[in-house]
Amino acid sequence: MAGTSRHDREMAMKAKQQLSQSADPVERLRLQCLTRGSSGIKGLGRVFKIMDDDRNRSLDLKEFLKGLNDYGVMMDKQEALTLFQHFDRDGSGSIDFDEFLITLRPAMSKARKEVVMQAFRKLDKTGDGVITIEDLQGVYNAKYHPKYQNGEWSEDQVFRKFLDSFDSPYDKDGKVTKDEFINYYCGVSASIDSDVYFILMMRNAWKL
Ligand SMILES: [Ca+2]
Ligand SMILES: [Ca+2]
Ligand SMILES: [Ca+2]
After folding, report:
1. Could you tell me the fold of the domain covering 5-104?
2. Given 3-state DSSP classes, what are the helix, strand and coil percentages for the chain, each rounded to the nearest 5?
3. Of 208 and 14, which is predicted with more confidence?
4. What pLDDT shows up at residue 15?
5. Residue 167 CB contacts under 8 Å (≥ 6 apart), including other chains
6. Nearest Cα residue to 176 out of 188, 165, 189
7. Which of 1, 33, 56, 97 has the highest count of CB atoms within 10 angstroms of its CB?
8. In a 3-state reduction of DSSP, which class is residue 173?
9. Which residues make up the environment of ion ligand 1, defined by Cβ < 5 Å?
Protein backbone atom coordinates (compact mmCIF):
# COMPACT_ATOMS: atom_id res chain seq x y z
CA MET A 1 0.00 0.00 0.00
CA ALA A 2 2.83 2.42 0.73
CA GLY A 3 5.48 3.63 -1.71
CA THR A 4 7.65 0.86 -3.05
CA SER A 5 11.42 0.85 -2.94
CA ARG A 6 11.47 1.66 -6.65
CA HIS A 7 9.52 4.83 -5.90
CA ASP A 8 11.95 5.65 -3.13
CA ARG A 9 14.94 5.28 -5.42
CA GLU A 10 13.36 7.48 -8.09
CA MET A 11 12.52 10.03 -5.46
CA ALA A 12 16.09 10.05 -4.16
CA MET A 13 17.49 10.55 -7.66
CA LYS A 14 15.09 13.35 -8.47
CA ALA A 15 15.85 15.06 -5.16
CA LYS A 16 19.57 14.93 -5.91
CA GLN A 17 19.04 16.71 -9.22
CA GLN A 18 16.83 19.36 -7.63
CA LEU A 19 19.30 19.90 -4.82
CA SER A 20 21.84 21.39 -7.19
CA GLN A 21 19.30 24.02 -8.27
CA SER A 22 17.72 25.01 -5.00
CA ALA A 23 18.89 27.91 -2.83
CA ASP A 24 16.02 28.00 -0.35
CA PRO A 25 17.25 26.52 2.97
CA VAL A 26 13.97 24.76 3.92
CA GLU A 27 13.83 23.24 0.44
CA ARG A 28 17.47 22.20 0.67
CA LEU A 29 16.96 20.45 4.00
CA ARG A 30 13.80 18.78 2.65
CA LEU A 31 15.70 17.58 -0.44
CA GLN A 32 18.60 16.34 1.69
CA CYS A 33 16.09 14.22 3.61
CA LEU A 34 14.53 12.96 0.37
CA THR A 35 17.89 11.96 -1.13
CA ARG A 36 18.35 9.76 1.93
CA GLY A 37 14.94 8.20 1.37
CA SER A 38 13.57 9.99 4.44
CA SER A 39 10.34 11.33 3.04
CA GLY A 40 7.63 10.11 5.33
CA ILE A 41 6.81 10.47 8.96
CA LYS A 42 9.21 7.65 9.81
CA GLY A 43 12.13 9.01 7.83
CA LEU A 44 11.74 12.53 9.15
CA GLY A 45 11.42 11.06 12.64
CA ARG A 46 14.80 9.45 12.10
CA VAL A 47 16.38 12.73 11.00
CA PHE A 48 14.86 14.48 14.01
CA LYS A 49 16.21 11.83 16.38
CA ILE A 50 19.70 12.15 14.90
CA MET A 51 19.65 15.93 15.38
CA ASP A 52 18.28 15.71 18.93
CA ASP A 53 21.62 15.17 20.67
CA ASP A 54 20.39 15.37 24.26
CA ARG A 55 17.27 13.30 23.47
CA ASN A 56 14.80 15.64 25.09
CA ARG A 57 12.47 15.38 22.08
CA SER A 58 13.08 18.92 20.95
CA LEU A 59 15.78 20.76 19.04
CA ASP A 60 17.39 23.82 20.52
CA LEU A 61 19.27 26.29 18.35
CA LYS A 62 22.60 24.57 18.89
CA GLU A 63 21.30 21.14 17.91
CA PHE A 64 19.52 22.64 14.93
CA LEU A 65 22.65 24.40 13.63
CA LYS A 66 24.75 21.28 14.04
CA GLY A 67 22.06 19.24 12.30
CA LEU A 68 21.95 21.60 9.32
CA ASN A 69 25.69 21.37 9.06
CA ASP A 70 25.59 17.55 9.20
CA TYR A 71 23.03 17.55 6.41
CA GLY A 72 25.15 19.85 4.28
CA VAL A 73 22.85 22.88 4.47
CA MET A 74 25.21 25.83 4.62
CA MET A 75 24.18 29.36 5.59
CA ASP A 76 25.34 32.26 7.69
CA LYS A 77 24.36 32.72 11.32
CA GLN A 78 21.60 35.25 10.66
CA GLU A 79 19.95 33.09 8.01
CA ALA A 80 20.10 30.09 10.32
CA LEU A 81 18.47 32.06 13.10
CA THR A 82 15.65 33.16 10.78
CA LEU A 83 15.20 29.55 9.68
CA PHE A 84 15.07 28.36 13.30
CA GLN A 85 12.32 30.90 14.03
CA HIS A 86 10.44 29.70 10.97
CA PHE A 87 10.46 26.12 12.28
CA ASP A 88 9.66 27.18 15.84
CA ARG A 89 6.04 28.08 15.12
CA ASP A 90 4.92 28.63 18.70
CA GLY A 91 8.03 30.68 19.52
CA SER A 92 8.97 28.46 22.46
CA GLY A 93 12.68 28.64 21.64
CA SER A 94 12.84 25.00 20.59
CA ILE A 95 11.52 22.89 17.74
CA ASP A 96 9.33 19.91 18.62
CA PHE A 97 8.72 17.03 16.25
CA ASP A 98 5.34 18.31 15.05
CA GLU A 99 6.87 21.66 14.11
CA PHE A 100 9.71 19.89 12.35
CA LEU A 101 7.34 17.64 10.42
CA ILE A 102 4.87 20.35 9.39
CA THR A 103 7.69 22.51 8.03
CA LEU A 104 9.51 19.75 6.16
CA ARG A 105 6.78 17.45 4.89
CA PRO A 106 6.54 17.60 1.10
CA ALA A 107 3.43 19.42 -0.11
CA MET A 108 0.51 17.48 -1.63
CA SER A 109 -1.79 18.78 -4.35
CA LYS A 110 -5.44 19.42 -3.51
CA ALA A 111 -6.53 16.40 -5.56
CA ARG A 112 -4.19 14.12 -3.63
CA LYS A 113 -5.27 15.51 -0.27
CA GLU A 114 -8.88 14.89 -1.20
CA VAL A 115 -8.35 11.22 -1.99
CA VAL A 116 -6.32 10.79 1.22
CA MET A 117 -9.18 12.29 3.20
CA GLN A 118 -11.63 9.98 1.42
CA ALA A 119 -9.57 7.02 2.59
CA PHE A 120 -9.47 8.43 6.11
CA ARG A 121 -13.24 8.83 6.25
CA LYS A 122 -13.74 5.32 4.94
CA LEU A 123 -11.39 3.92 7.56
CA ASP A 124 -13.01 5.90 10.36
CA LYS A 125 -16.08 3.68 10.68
CA THR A 126 -17.12 5.15 14.01
CA GLY A 127 -16.95 8.67 12.54
CA ASP A 128 -15.25 10.24 15.55
CA GLY A 129 -12.35 11.74 13.56
CA VAL A 130 -9.65 9.32 14.75
CA ILE A 131 -8.76 5.84 13.59
CA THR A 132 -8.49 3.26 16.35
CA ILE A 133 -8.68 -0.51 16.73
CA GLU A 134 -12.45 -0.13 17.00
CA ASP A 135 -12.60 1.11 13.40
CA LEU A 136 -10.64 -1.86 12.11
CA GLN A 137 -12.70 -4.57 13.81
CA GLY A 138 -14.88 -6.38 11.31
CA VAL A 139 -13.31 -4.45 8.41
CA TYR A 140 -9.69 -5.45 8.30
CA ASN A 141 -9.11 -9.20 8.43
CA ALA A 142 -6.27 -10.06 10.79
CA LYS A 143 -6.63 -13.80 10.24
CA TYR A 144 -4.34 -13.82 7.22
CA HIS A 145 -1.47 -12.09 8.99
CA PRO A 146 1.44 -14.56 9.35
CA LYS A 147 2.06 -13.58 12.99
CA TYR A 148 -1.59 -14.15 13.80
CA GLN A 149 -1.52 -17.51 12.06
CA ASN A 150 1.51 -18.74 13.98
CA GLY A 151 -0.03 -17.57 17.25
CA GLU A 152 2.57 -14.90 18.00
CA TRP A 153 0.12 -11.97 17.85
CA SER A 154 -3.48 -11.50 18.89
CA GLU A 155 -5.97 -9.81 16.57
CA ASP A 156 -5.55 -6.55 18.51
CA GLN A 157 -1.77 -6.71 18.10
CA VAL A 158 -2.13 -7.06 14.33
CA PHE A 159 -4.40 -4.00 14.33
CA ARG A 160 -2.03 -2.06 16.56
CA LYS A 161 0.87 -2.79 14.23
CA PHE A 162 -1.20 -1.52 11.32
CA LEU A 163 -2.02 1.72 13.19
CA ASP A 164 1.61 2.14 14.26
CA SER A 165 2.70 2.67 10.66
CA PHE A 166 0.57 5.84 10.53
CA ASP A 167 1.07 6.95 14.12
CA SER A 168 3.58 9.72 14.80
CA PRO A 169 6.85 8.22 16.10
CA TYR A 170 6.63 10.55 19.11
CA ASP A 171 3.02 9.84 19.90
CA LYS A 172 2.30 6.16 19.32
CA ASP A 173 -0.96 5.90 21.19
CA GLY A 174 -2.93 3.66 18.83
CA LYS A 175 -4.99 6.63 17.66
CA VAL A 176 -4.38 7.95 14.18
CA THR A 177 -5.51 11.54 13.66
CA LYS A 178 -6.21 13.20 10.31
CA ASP A 179 -2.92 15.05 10.57
CA GLU A 180 -0.94 11.87 11.17
CA PHE A 181 -2.68 10.18 8.26
CA ILE A 182 -1.87 13.11 5.96
CA ASN A 183 1.72 13.23 7.22
CA TYR A 184 2.14 9.60 6.32
CA TYR A 185 0.84 10.11 2.80
CA CYS A 186 2.93 13.25 2.23
CA GLY A 187 5.88 10.91 2.39
CA VAL A 188 4.37 8.38 0.00
CA SER A 189 3.21 11.18 -2.28
CA ALA A 190 6.72 12.64 -2.58
CA SER A 191 7.86 9.46 -4.28
CA ILE A 192 5.09 9.56 -6.93
CA ASP A 193 5.17 12.14 -9.72
CA SER A 194 1.77 11.83 -11.27
CA ASP A 195 -1.46 12.86 -9.53
CA VAL A 196 -3.34 10.35 -11.67
CA TYR A 197 -1.13 7.49 -10.54
CA PHE A 198 -1.24 8.53 -6.89
CA ILE A 199 -5.03 8.71 -6.94
CA LEU A 200 -5.29 5.35 -8.70
CA MET A 201 -2.99 3.78 -6.13
CA MET A 202 -5.11 5.16 -3.28
CA ARG A 203 -8.35 3.97 -4.88
CA ASN A 204 -6.92 0.49 -5.31
CA ALA A 205 -5.38 0.32 -1.85
CA TRP A 206 -8.49 1.47 -0.03
CA LYS A 207 -11.15 0.31 -2.53
CA LEU A 208 -12.60 3.80 -2.83
CA1 LIG B 1 17.29 18.37 22.18
CA1 LIG C 1 8.32 25.45 19.53
CA1 LIG D 1 -12.88 6.18 14.72
Report:
1. Recoverin; domain 1 (1.10.238)
2. 60, 5, 35
3. 208
4. 80
5. 173, 174, 175, 176, 180
6. 165
7. 33
8. coil
9. 52, 54, 56, 63
